[in-house]
Amino acid sequence: MKKFGMAALTAVFATGLVACGDTTDDEGQDTVEVPAEDEMDDDLDTDEDDTDMDDDTTEDTDSQEAAAEDWFEELNFEQFQLDAEYGEQTFMVDYDYNDGEPQAVIEDNRDDEAGEIQGEDALDELATILPEMNIDDQATEEELIEEAIMAFELDEDYDEIEVEVEFFNDADIDADDEDEDEDENNL
Question: Where is the composition biased (Acidic residues) (predicted)?
Answer without folding.
Answer: 23-66
